[in-house]
Each structure stands twice: as C-alpha cells, then as structure tokens.
Amino acid sequence: MTTNRGVYIHIPFCKKKCAYCDFYSVSPDTDIILRYTDALCEEIRAGGDKYADAPVNTLYIGGGTPVLAGERALERIVRALEDSFKLELEEFTVELNPDDDNPYAFLKELGVNRVSIGVQSVTDEVLRAAGRRHDGVAAIRALESANKYFDNVSADLMLGLPFQTVASATDSVNTVLPYVKHVSAYMLKLSRSVPMSAALARGEYTLPDDDLTVDMYEAVFALLGERGFARYEISNFALPGYESKHNLKYWRREEYLGFGAAAHSQTGDFRYANPASLKDYIAGKRFGNGTASREKIGADEAAFEYVMLGLRTAEGVDVAACEARFGFDFDERFAGALHRLRDVLVREGNRLRIRDDMLLLESAVALEFMD
To answer: Domains plus CATH for the chain?
Structure first.
C-alpha cells in the first residue's frame, strides 16, 4: 500500500481560451456547472470506495478557472472528498486568474493554504498577444490581495511569448517577487491547434528565437537565485520549504488520483485518463466509476519514467530507491548511458543528477536511458 496520495480536481471552465492553451476547457453556464459538479462529486465518492486505503496529503484544484464553478460547487467538491477519503492535507492549492473576482476569504475558510496565480507576464503587449484577459496592473492587484490571505502564493510566468525580451521577462520576476514564495517559469510550447499558431502563420507577430528564449530562462534563473529561490525542478523555483508538495509527487512518480473531465490518475501499474469531453464525462465515463481509459505500465517503461522524471529535478534520481523499486542494478542496467553522459551527470552518493548548467538538456539526456 502506498504511504499517501495526492488528488487533482479538474474544473474545465474558462471565460476565454488563451492563445497558447491546448488544455481542455469549455465556457460555463449555470446548468452545465451544476451537472458537472454532480458528476464530479459522484466520481469522487466512487473513487473513495476503491482508493481510500491511503490518506490524501495534497490536493490541487486546477483548470480552467476553478472559481468559475462558484463557491457552492467548490464547497460540495471538498465535502465529497472529506466524506470519501482520509484527508491529512499538508498542502491544498487552487489555481486563480488575476482578472477574476477571486473569493480569497472563502478559499481560506475552505481549507486552501496555497494559491497559484497565472500571471504569465506583467507586460501588456505580451499579455495581449498571449490572449490573456488581464493586464499587468490586474496581475499585481491579484498578487497583493492573495498575499493578504495566504502565506504560500505562487506565480506562473511564461518565457518565449511574442514581444517578450530578456528585460521584460526579468521585470515580470521582479514585479511578482514581493508577493510570492514560489515561481513557475515555463518556456512556451505550442501545438498546431491553438490560436497563437494560426496568428504566427498569418504573420501577425513572431516568436523570440530559441537562443533568446534560453537567454530569458538563464536570466530568470540567475535573478531568482540571487533572491533566494532555489530551482528544484526545471521550471519551478521556491524559497526553502515552499516547494510544491503536490507537483513533487509527479516528479517522484508517486501515486495520484485525478477527478474530473480530462483528469489523469496513476495507481499501481496503471495509468488512467478521463475523457476530454463534458458529454462523455457526465454520461459516466470516469476513473472513479472504473470506466476511464486504462493503460498498463510495463516494468521497463516505469523504470524509464522514474529516471526521466527524477532528472528534471535538482535532487535527481535516487539510485538506491530505483534499485529497490525495480529490482535491478542501476549501474549495470544503464552502463551505456552513464558512460555517454559522464560529462553531463553528477553522482553524489546515491543521487544522480544533471549538472546545473545543463539541466535544459534534460529531454535529450533522458532519452539516453531508453536503451
């Protein structure tokens, strides 16, 4: 039995889709919110019948924009979790957008102790190109308000957006730092289906090239380091003790349960995916019901994932834990990769990690462990 699990709740409601976003989301109305909340609470209770064997110590409600479901819906969801699982929450995060009427006092009373605010940038020209609904002033106002209620505030930033420069990227960091204990700085990755890809094809603007985007990342990394924020994962930085406990479960390949349309779960040797369709989800195709898509993860794939995810982090791969978990000699199994990467990897006792100055090469490094 696993020691504890994390739970992710997906609220797929958005007023407007951002230009770069390919996450599943829909526009909300009163009827669909009610029907979705009913289905979600049913799934949580059904999931509790199967997976209440271990306590839940992290809870993350994301989206979409969770607060668009309304206070009553959020309260129902949390009560369903309390009724179905043994909650021993160390961290309860809710994602927020800067331009919404965020109910900070209600969220705190609900038990939330961490909020993650989608700032992305404080430069208005960059925000307009990204299709964000807020401007820089609204972002600052949201951070100020959140900071009055929560000690643990995180800001999401993006790097490589149209019109963005090294100066504007670092300005965004400097602007959010007085209010946050955690910063996520993601480099833009676009799918062909999003509006930004179409705008680029029409020549409405261009993206910074790869070298400039890397320069932004390196400048942000340096600035955050100077201000006491340690990089604990490629895109995530925190003051000591403020790392995201929930997200660390993903990178350590621990078990998590996902409820809601398009949510994913991983338990034992299986990975599950709920449909990215409100119609199918409300009709009953859900992980909690045992009717979500299911994929069995083989031992070789699981071992590779463990190494790949660990290499994303500053703590690296726990070699001894890997050997105990998968039953092989690490140095023997990966002798070829370890030799080829001898100038890239650092071995410190039982820990194997990528050199700090080469962490952005993680994807290429991880592929070496597939043989």
So the answer is: 5-251 (3.20.20.70), 299-370 (1.10.10)
